[in-house]
Amino acid sequence: MSEAPVDSKSEQIAAEIRDAIRVGQLQRGVLYSSRELGERFGASRTPVREALLKLADLGLVKIERNRGARVLGPDGRGIVELCSLRVLLEPPAARSAAAVMTGRDEEALAAEFKIMEKLADGSPEYFAADERLHDLILRASGNLRLAKFVGELRQTLALDGRFSVPKYQSVETALKDHWDIIEALRKRDGEAAERAMRKHIVRSADLLVAHSGEDNRGLVAEWRRWVEIAVPAGERIVH
Asked: Which whole-number Å values give the CA distances from 11 to 51, 72, 138, 223, in the listed order?
């Protein structure tokens, strides 16, 4: 059997490293060599190096020449940048999805929402269904590169505090946001789907940014500037 291409192997290793950071198996602030990571994840130096470059682009590690990669800690500015990208990209994708999605897409969305509704506890399993739901919408839009890119953004946000959202917002509110998106998509109402997605992302990002650090007034102001850019004049985001 032939070996997997470097690209697919590096993506697999990147996902495994990201998960290891999430659960604390790789400690933030610690420097890890490519050899050490290769031994840990059963990979040669090339895919490990490619994986680290991908994670560096996402702001999860910092490459230190001839030494390895240092796992980075929470970054409030990074949260603002990631949330800004999401609010600029996902609402138009939802609008596109409404125009071309199929009945099978609709059934898949309903299945993921049912899992979220059944759990309704803000657990990792709840958020896994949440991620799959968003990924389904992005893929239904027809832009698979966008789906992959936003999926990586969401994974990075998971490390920088996404799971803290239930502390400040009820799961019921998040469920209502998702249901509004699904209903608009079911009706093939692109404008409503775009508005509902934008409302959901802004609401969640407001909480992430607000609790991203002790003195984050500048970050909050920067995030609100992006909201003003992303939200059309006359569209009111109600919290």
From this structure: 6, 19, 19, 30
